[in-house]
Amino acid sequence: MKKLIKILFKLIIILMVIAIGIGSTLLYSGYKVYKQAIEEKPIEKAVSEVMNREDYVPYEQLSDYFCDAVVAIEDHRFWFRDGIDYIAIGRAFVVNIISGSISEGGSTITQQLAKNLYFNNSVDFKRKIAEIFFVDELEKRYSKEEILSLYVNIIYYGDGYYGINDAANGYYAKQPSELDLYESAMIAGLPQSPSIYQLSTGLEKAKQRQLQVLDAMVLYDFITLQQKEDALAIHE
Predict the structure, then answer these.
(1) Averaged pLDDT for residues 221-233
(2) Do residues 152 and 62 touch, judged by C-beta distance below 8 A?
(3) How far is residue 213 from each of residues 7, 73, 105, 168, measured CA to CA in Å?
(4) Is the pTM of this model over 0.70?
(5) DSSP string of the chain, one letter each residue
(6) Total domain count for the chain?
(7) Where in the sequence is the domain holding 139, given as residue range(s)?
(8) What's the CA angle centered on 29, arms 10 and 15, to 5 degrees?
(9) FRET pair for 4, CA 20 to 30 Å: which of 94, 137, 181, 196?
(10) Residue 17 pLDDT
């Protein structure tokens, strides 16, 4: 029995050494990706390019319902912690190591902003590590309100609409500040998979996604159950 325990202990030590080695290699590789990206385009420049667009909508001009809907469905701890959700990242890391690929993201809104500012839709471990360095810089330089507004102004909502200004005007002929709860929940659900949920071809699936958004808003106390039911009833 003692011999077996010694063997298991040695095996655990070996696995820990291997894990540390792999982790260190990935961390260094991710840092190199980050450094190369900001040398080509500093964060201030990447952000200013978005903020200086004619159709950019600052946080103060966004519907409260829409902001709450995005946070509820995308990253419900957004306002209360730093940019990396270590619980979600830890869970995703285990799943991805087991699967041998990036099958689960665990991304926060700030991570997704970094991805959209600097990367395409391809995924790998080095890029996911690089996002962590971007998140640290973004959250040092910009407020949560600025990060959220940057995110919703840069993502794709389907049907050719990039950014919340295009999506609000294109889908509902409204300014982003005018979106009601129903419309906000609908648009907030689209970025997960725009080609599937876009309203021109995927309306029924978009409505199912909208219910998920509303349920998340209720779950995380952004709205009451009565508000959800009223929103759905008005648009029946």
Answers:
(1) 96
(2) yes
(3) 50, 5, 19, 17
(4) yes
(5) -HHHHHHHHHHHHHHHHHHHHHHHHHHHHHHHHHHHHHHHS-HHHHHHHHHTSTT---GGGS-HHHHHHHHHHH-TTGGGS-S--HHHHHHHHHHHHHHTS-------HHHHHHHHHH--S---HHHHHHHHHHHHHHHHHS-HHHHHHHHHHHSB-STT-BSHHHHHHHHHSS-GGG--HHHHHHHHHGGGSHHHH-TTT-HHHHHHHHHHHHHHHHHTTSS-HHHHHHHHHHT-
(6) 1
(7) 2-234
(8) 10
(9) 94
(10) 47
Tokens of 163: 């950014």
CA distance 218 to 52: 35
Q: Cα angle vertex 146, ends 218, 133, to 5°?
A: 100
Class of residue 119 by CB neighbours under 10 A (exposed 0-12, middle 13-18, buried 19+): middle
- For residue 19, the model assigns a pLDDT of 47
pLDDT tens digits for 52-104? 999 999 999 999 999 999 999 999 999 998 656 666 555 555 554 554 444 44
CATH of the domain at 19: 1.10.3810.10
What is the C-alpha to C-alpha distance for residues 120 and 110, in angstroms, rounded to an integer? 16
Of 126, 106, 130, the residue nearest 117 (C-alpha): 130
User: In this structure, are residues 150 and 51 in contact, taking their beta carbons and an 8 Å threshold?
Assistant: yes
